[in-house]
Amino acid sequence: MDFIDKRYKRIIYVNHCLLNQNTRGPGAAFREAASNELIQIFLKNDLNIEQLPCLEIIGAGGVSRKSLDTFLPLLSNSIENGWFPLIKPLIKVRLYRYQWLCKKTALKIVSEMNDFLNAGYVITGIIGMNDSATCGVTKSLDFMEVIRRIAIERNSAITLKKIIKDALIDDRSYFMGSIMSELKKRRMDIKVVGFEPWNDSQENQAKRIAKKLNLIV
Ligand code: SF4
How far is 62 from 162, CA to CA, in rounded Å? Predict the structure, then answer.
């Protein structure tokens, strides 16, 4: 359907927690609220902002990650008493189910992106979080290691930030990795950039992303 209205047909896709810090796992927020510096740049460039879903909220028991709460005592117990290898297959099954959820959601989102492109819209980029097993772009997390460390160190003063930094690996993430594979499969040329929440100032991170996406700062 042809029409004329006021819209700018440019869209940027952003990870959920960049717009709502409350969706970060307990202990993992890296600032107080939405990523103001980045949003200001988007607005300055007249971009429409699409928020990607937070798969951890959907697949790991909501904002409080309740499924981890029920799981961690069992895990600590198994590590303390030396029967961790016995429950490893159970963790793998749960991870497999989570990966499947991520893949299914990624396919749906890439189809939506494709619809925008076919209708003449421009997708300026996709921004992921380079500290997440779910949303990392060039980095992922050794999820097993994170779970193991949380279970062992849950009563110590060690922060989740330290555990995350120690467990960062160069690997494909579950959700963003699936989005990127699907884009490649469909030959959709959209830039995907990773936000590094623990490196540098928020302002510098926003400028780095802007530069990669050719946005005015
Ligand atoms: S990185 Fe992804 S999964 Fe983690 S809190 Fe942000 S949106 Fe949710």
Answer: 23
pLDDT in tens, 116-133: 999 999 999 999 999 999
In a domain? residue 5: no
Total-model pTM: 0.92
pLDDT recorded at residue 155: 62
Structural domain total, the chain? 1
Atom of ligand 1 nearest to the CA of 131: 1
The parts of the chain modelled with pLDDT lower than 50 are none
Q: Does 139 contact ligand 1 (Cβ within 6 A)?
A: no
Cα(54)–Cα(65) distance, rounded to whole angstroms? 12
Q: Label each residue of 23-48 as H, E or C.
A: HCCCCCCCCCCCCHHHHHHHHHCCCE
DSSP at 206: H
Task: Please give the distance, rounded to the nearest whole angstrom, from the Cα atom of residue 23 to the centre of ligand 1.
Answer: 7
Tell how far CA 34 is from the center of its chain.
15
Domain that holds residue 108: 10-212
